[in-house]
Design a protein that fits this description.
This protein is an alpha+beta fold. It contains seven helices and five strands.
Length: 169
């Protein structure tokens, strides 16, 4: 079993928090719930759909902090000292989490052009946490995250990370 990180944009904390109940992350349909928190078929069908960046190698703490540091030039320690760094906004019944990313993370990704993202991938790939992951794969993921960040800025949304586990990975 491995940990899975899926990044998505949501217009509100409430919309993002609901994703903690989804068994396969923000790209899967809303979960049927039981008891007081039951979600009707109509509400499940009306639930927001999210654009998802599947980034199993990019945890929202250490690896995302290192990326933010590389993109902004700020020290890693300053990044993780931000008051809103890594806020858990929801936990689902199966232990899935939804974590808010920071404005610094979103702004840095949204402001970076393709050549800057490609240039950052090389030094980022040399961090201990990303050892063995191809620079090309990191570059592609960076470009996807930047596109998500740009869309989130336009929509005045925030980026969140669904943290779950999947078997067989």
């Amino acid at each position: 079993m491995s940990v899975d990180y899926q990044y998505f944009g949501a217009a509100s904390v409430k919309a993002a928090a609901e994703v903690a109940h989804r068994t396969d992350g923000p790209g899967s349909p809303p979960a049927k719930r039981k008891g007081k928190k039951k979600v009707s078929k109509k509400d499940r069908e009306a639930a927001p759909r999210f654009t998802v960046v599947d980034a199993p190698m990019i945890d929202p703490y250490v690896v995302a902090g290192t990326l933010t540091s590389l993109l902004t030039g700020r020290s890693y320690e300053d990044i993780v000292d931000d008051l809103d760094w890594g806020d858990v906004v929801a936990e689902g019944p199966a232990g899935h989490l939804v974590i808010a990313t920071t404005d610094a993370f979103v702004k840095a990704l949204a402001a970076s052009d393709d050549s800057a993202l490609t240039a950052i991938a090389e030094p980022w790939s040399h961090t201990e946490e990303l050892e063995g992951i191809a620079v090309e794969r990191l570059t592609a993921t960076l470009h996807e995250l930047a596109a998500l960040a740009r869309a989130a800025r336009v929509e005045k949304a925030r980026i969140y990370c669904w943290v779950g586990s999947r078997t067989g990975s």
